[in-house]
């Protein structure tokens, strides 16, 4: 309600400035506990999630406010993407609100403060809540060896992350998505598997929605062969479904409502192939409890969102979890796990 009143003021600001202000606001908020495990609690990859609704990567790139996000009702928060070395990202402007489309286009380019700074921040965290912390890692733009950057990320954050996401699906680092290609993906995942230590947490893989037929089988096989614990489907799209907003022609990755149908169909395809051998995390255009429920019924064990928080504000997690509980009961399910893939 308050957000509805403030929205015109927030939307009058440059989007990147509004984003920084929201992080500052969360930092200033009195600490609130992560949601307690209730009817929506669910186990994925051996981790206990108090509810299945998470904040997607890219909002809290440097791990400044994961606990504040969980205090808002998110069952988990994925910080990052973080690269080994700090880097400034692309020239501004690089973030665009497409208000008429309820969408966002970004070409941030992994702007972040690097792994040392993020690690130090996370190491100071009190880990007493029930929420789950994911750390999403990427490769530096000018890395000589991108595979080595991912291995560094996994090694670096093993002591502080509940899970680590290998993000090879950002469209804003030239050539990064080639790591999804045949041969490259297998080499990357083998290197990650070889670097695994007893303390390494579950490793998730985040893929792009812009895939061709045949890619899905290959990705699932490579993931299963190399001990990937879950697949996150999906990142932003470089495709452009029909859009109304003035900034529709900006380069970068599109997220929000226009991504929903594509992300859902890719999730369904992965579920068809993987069955229940590989947990899926559904992300892309989720804005309501109905959207989250549809994604779970289609095969997602967990869901994430980012763009909808821009349009609906900080109450979004509670709004969705409340609705999910209602939908779960109405459809006669006793738990989220029971509903996964039940459509
Ligand atoms: C401004 C912005 C920055 C993002 N940065 C990252 C990132 O650094 N790493 C990543 O894996 N995904 C990133 N994403 C993608 C989101 O995590 C998510 O996959 C995508 O936005 C689709 O979800 P949504 O429609 O709910 O926003 C970013 C998205 C936005 C809008």
Describe this structure in words.
It is a single chain. The protein has a single domain (2-339), classed as TIM Barrel (Alpha-Beta Barrel), CATH 3.20.20. The chain has helices at residues 2-12, 15-28, 66-71, 114-123, 146-157, 184-194, 215-225, 260-274, 289-297, 307-312, 316-330, 336-339; strands at residues 42-44, 47-49, 53-55, 76-82, 95-98, 103-106, 132-137, 163-167, 203-207, 230-233, 253-256, 280-283, 300-305. The strands form 3 sheets. An 8-stranded parallel β-barrel has the order 3-4-7-8-9-10-12-13, surrounded by 5 helices. Strands 5-6-11 form a 3-stranded antiparallel beta sheet, with no helix packed on it. Helix 5 runs parallel beside helix 6 and helix 9 crosses helix 11. The chain is 36% helix and 17% strand. It has 343 residues and is α/β, with parallel strands linked by helices. The model has no long low-confidence stretch (mean pLDDT 97). The structure holds flavin mononucleotide. Flavin mononucleotide (FMN) binds next to strand 4, strand 6, strand 11 and helix 10.
User: How large is the count of helical segments?
Assistant: 12
Number of domains: 1
Helix/strand/pairing class, anyone? alpha/beta
Task: Please report the first level of CATH classification, the CATH class.
Answer: Alpha Beta
Q: Biggest β-sheet, characterized?
A: 8 strands, parallel, barrel
EC number: 1.3.5.2
Subunit structure: Monomer.
Binding site for substrate: 61, 106-110, 167, 172, 235-236
Catalytic activity: (S)-dihydroorotate + a quinone = orotate + a quinol
């Amino acid at each position: 309600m308050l957000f509805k009143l403030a929205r015109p003021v927030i939307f009058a600001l440059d989007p990147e400035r509004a984003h920084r202000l929201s992080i500052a606001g969360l930092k200033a908020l009195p600490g609130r506990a992560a949601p307690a495990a209730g009817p929506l609690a669910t186990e994925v990859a051996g981790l206990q999630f108090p509810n299945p609704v998470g904040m997607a990567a890219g909002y809290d790139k440097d791990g400044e406010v994961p606990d504040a996000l969980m205090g808002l009702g998110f069952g988990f928060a994925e910080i990052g993407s973080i690269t080994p070395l700090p880097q400034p990202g692309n020239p501004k402007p690089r973030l665009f609100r497409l208000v008429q489309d309820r969408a966002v286009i970004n070409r941030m380019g992994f702007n972040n403060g690097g792994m040392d700074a993020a690690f130090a921040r996370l190491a100071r965290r009190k880990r007493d809540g029930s929420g789950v912390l994911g750390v999403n890692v990427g490769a530096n733009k000018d890395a000589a060896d991108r595979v080595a950057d991912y291995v560094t990320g996994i090694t670096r954050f093993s002591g502080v992350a509940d899970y680590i996401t290998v993000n090879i699906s950002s469209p804003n680092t030239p050539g990064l998505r080639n790591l999804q290609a045949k041969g490259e993906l297998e080499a990357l995942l083998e290197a990650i598997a070889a670097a695994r230590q007893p303390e390494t947490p579950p490793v998730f893989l985040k893929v792009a929605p812009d895939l061709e037929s045949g890619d899905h089988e290959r990705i699932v096989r490579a993931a299963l062969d190399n001990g990937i614990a879950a697949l996150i489907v999906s990142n932003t799209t470089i495709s452009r479904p029909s859009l109304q907003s003035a900034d529709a022609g900006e380069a970068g990755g599109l997220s929000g409502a226009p991504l929903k149908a594509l992300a859902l169909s890719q999730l369904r395809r992965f579920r068809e192939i993987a069955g229940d051998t590989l947990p899926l995390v559904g992300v892309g255009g989720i804005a309501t409890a109905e959207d989250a429920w549809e994604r779970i019924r289609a095969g997602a064990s967990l869901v994430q969102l980012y763009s909808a928080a821009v349009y609906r504000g900080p109450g979004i997690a509670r709004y969705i979890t409340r609705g999910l509980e209602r939908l779960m009961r109405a459809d006669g399910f006793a738990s989220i796990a029971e509903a996964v893939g039940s459509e």
